[in-house]
Each structure stands twice: as C-alpha cells, then as structure tokens.
C-alpha cells in the first residue's frame, strides 16, 4: 500500500507491517528487511495501510481497533528495524493514516461520537465520524510516546461533525502547520507550532452539503445496516463534490493540492488552492483524472518544487509540471495493464510507484525515471476494482 522513501531506502506498508527496500541501484531494488507487527503484539487484528519515516524513526498506522494506533520502529539501520512501542489513542481509534515530522506524529482520527443519553454507561446514539480530528503524539522517545494534544472537528465546525460524512482521512504536517483532509468538510489547516495546543486557521473546499446535519444512529433501536439503508447518504458520501482524500502543500506553502477519491459519478481529480492568504483560500487550478479505462480516481501523491507525482489506481502513475500551479501539465506517465497504484513519491530524481496488492496480482514497488530504464511493465496481472472507499462508514461504527 503506502510507500515512502528516504535516500536509498523505501518503506512499504504491507498490511501486517512494512518491508524495507534498498534501491541504491534503481534497476535492482531488493527487499532487505520485513517488520511484522504479529511478532510484537498479542493476537492483533492488523490492517497496516500507512507508513511514514523521518530520520531514524518509522511509524506504522494500524487501521483497526485491535489495537488502533501507531507502531514505532528504530530504523537507524534500515536493514534491521527494531520495534520500540505501540501508541494507542484514548478513546481507542483505528488510524487509517499518519504523518511524522521530527519529534511528533500526527494521527488522522475518524471515529464515531458515542453518546450516552440515559446514563447507563452504554452508547445509545452515535454520530458517524463525529469525533473526527487530529491527534498529535510526542515521539521524541520512540520507546515511550506520549499524548500531546487532540483537535476535534466538532469543537470548531460542529455542523460538519454532525453531518456524518466527514472523517479525517489523511494529513500532512509542514512548517508548524497541519493540513488535514476531512472528506466533504474539505481541507482544514491547523497551526500546530505549539503541538500541545493546535489552533484552527482555515477551511476550504467543502462540499455544498458537507455540513448538512443528519440524525445519529439510534443504536438500541436499529441495526447499522438499517441506518445505512434509511438514513445515511451513502451515495453522496461516495460521489463528488467533496471527498477530500489526500492533501499536501507545496514546499513553499503557498499552494495546497487536494485529491478527491470518488466511487460514483465519475473519478475524482486534484484541485490546486492558493493559500498565500489563509483568510481567502482560492482554487486556481485542477488536474483531471487520466482519460483511460479502468478505476482511475485520484489517490496519494507527492509534491516537489515544480513537479507533482500522482497515483490514479488503474490510471497509473503520472508526473505533472506545476511550475505554474494554475496550469498543471502532464509530462510523464506509466500505465501498464493490470497494475493499480496506491501512491507515487519523488526521491533522488526518480518516481517510486507503490503497487496496490489488492488490485494487482501482488503488491510491490516500481522505480520510474523519465530518461532511464527499460520501459516495460512489471510482471503483474490485474484484479477486480474495489467496490467502496478505503474509509467505509460501517467500519467506524
């Protein structure tokens, strides 16, 4: 699934942990280590979709509540990752994505807001994604991570929290700011220069009905399936507009790129926002999905000073010139048949494509360059497209 790179080593989330790939020779990448959380936790349920690395620390996000949180590894020797600890939020939360910068990890929260109206200690109402937010964790000592703060959408934008369609799906931290993708609530920017006290800065790109409040799930009166069939706007959740899925600022912070992941009504693209004035964010550009067959909505991407490296599932990996962010121009593409891509990242002048194992014969990593290498597809064959989004509202109940 997710792939990140730091120098000659790439780190790949593989469902139960991570693989470390040495690609010093880009034509002969080799797996040099595998870290499996089954070896560290007692009887876990694992869904490790995300990995982040900064310096000597790697963080793996586990997208279940058994246990939910992040695992921290010492990767000072990338060929021998050493498990340090597992951090679990309180209350428990499945962590779909995280980010890691310096001494802090940033966790995307998409939990239900559980309400006990009669005081019996049990929830009888639940607002899906009502406890969406950002949790910041001090990982300066990876063996002993500690809670720094939690920011909830409901505290600043309560109508969006009550709308039931706005998980914090992914986030990116840069220069003391946190950029968080909140699905139909759009993108929220926080000032986390003091990680113990993040403050709301701005919001942009929300769907027109992103703050349309729906009634909560009556836990004791109806099943979750009944709630989804009769109340939850599932079709609207799956379709544009909105669906802020992945977000990353430009290195200078003047622009923010927001990708939409859609499953109904056509594939989502990547919007470009001018945020040089946080009081008035303005959309100035857009990258449309590639015009190819297959499942081709925007997924994860990476932004450099003048390039955007993007994955489009079965639409391949594509690179865009964003020297002028208002007019992105495609300059390179790699789209072999039967291969689906989870992410694309830039490192050492190359593009690394993370191959999504659930939609390809096997997962892996592709090393790409516009001028080097033999332009032949890897030996993968295709698989079925997904039937729903990575963040399934039912999984959050």
Please tell me about this protein's structure.
It is built from four helices and 28 strands. Strands 9, 10, 11, 12 and 17 form a five-stranded antiparallel beta sheet that branches. A four-stranded antiparallel beta sheet has the order 1-2-3-4, with no helix packed on it. Strands 5-6-7-8 form a four-stranded antiparallel beta sheet, with no helix packed on it. The chain is globular, with a radius of gyration of 20 Å. It is mainly β and 397 residues long. Residues 370-397 are annotated as: Disordered.
SSE topology sketch:
Layout: E1 3-6, E2 9-13, E3 17-22, E4 30-36, E5 48-54, E6 57-62, E7 69-74, E8 82-87, E9 98-101, E10 104-115, E11 125-138, E12 146-152, H1 153-156, H2 158-162, E13 170-174, E14 177-181, E15 187-191, E16 199-204, E17 217-218, H3 224-230, H4 234-238, E18 244-249, E19 255-260, E20 270-274, E21 282-287, E22 301-303, E23 307-311, E24 317-321, E25 329-334, E26 341-347, E27 350-355, E28 364-368
């Amino acid at each position: 699934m997710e792939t990140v790179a730091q120098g000659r080593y790439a780190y790949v989330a593989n469902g139960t942990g991570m693989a470390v790939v040495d690609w010093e020779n880009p034509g002969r990448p080799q797996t040099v280590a595998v870290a499996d959380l089954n070896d560290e936790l007692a009887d876990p349920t694992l869904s490790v979709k995300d990995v982040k690395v900064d310096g000597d620390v790697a963080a793996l996000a586990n997208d279940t509540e058994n246990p939910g949180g992040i695992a921290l590894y010492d990767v000072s020797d990338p060929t021998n990752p050493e498990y340090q600890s597992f951090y679990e939020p309180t209350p428990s939360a499945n962590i779909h994505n995280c980010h890691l910068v310096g001494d802090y990890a940033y966790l995307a929260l998409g939990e239900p807001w559980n309400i006990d109206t009669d005081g019996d200690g049990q929830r009888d109402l639940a607002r899906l994604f009502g406890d969406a937010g950002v949790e910041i964790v001090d990982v300066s000592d990876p063996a002993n991570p500690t809670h720094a703060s939690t920011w909830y959408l409901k505290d600043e934008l309560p109508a969006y929290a009550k709308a039931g369609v706005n998980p914090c799906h992914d986030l990116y931290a840069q220069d003391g700011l946190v950029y968080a993708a909140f699905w139909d609530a759009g993108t929220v920017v926080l000032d986390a220069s003091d990680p113990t006290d993040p403050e709301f800065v701005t919001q942009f790109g929300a769907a027109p009905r992103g703050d349309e409040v729906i009634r909560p799930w009556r836990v004791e009166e109806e099943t979750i399936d009944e709630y989804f069939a009769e109340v939850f706007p599932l079709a609207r959740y799956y379709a544009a507009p909105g669906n802020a899925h992945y977000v990353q600022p430009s290195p200078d912070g003047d622009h923010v790129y927001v990708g939409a992941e859609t499953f109904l009504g056509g594939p989502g693209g990547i919007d470009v926002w001018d945020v040089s004035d946080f009081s008035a964010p303005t959309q100035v550009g857009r990258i449309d999905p590639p015009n190819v067959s297959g499942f081709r909505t925007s997924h994860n991407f990476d932004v450099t000073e003048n390039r955007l490296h993007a994955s489009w599932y079965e639409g391949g990996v594509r690179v865009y010139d964003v020297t002028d962010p208002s007019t992105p121009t495609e300059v390179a593409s790699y789209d072999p048949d039967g291969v689906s891509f989870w992410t694309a990242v830039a490192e050492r002048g190359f593009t690394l494509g993370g191959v999504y194992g659930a939609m390809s014969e096997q997962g892996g990593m592709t090393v790409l360059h516009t001028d080097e290498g033999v332009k032949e597809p890897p030996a993968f064959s295709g698989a079925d497209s997904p039937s729903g989004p990575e963040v399934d509202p039912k999984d959050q109940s």
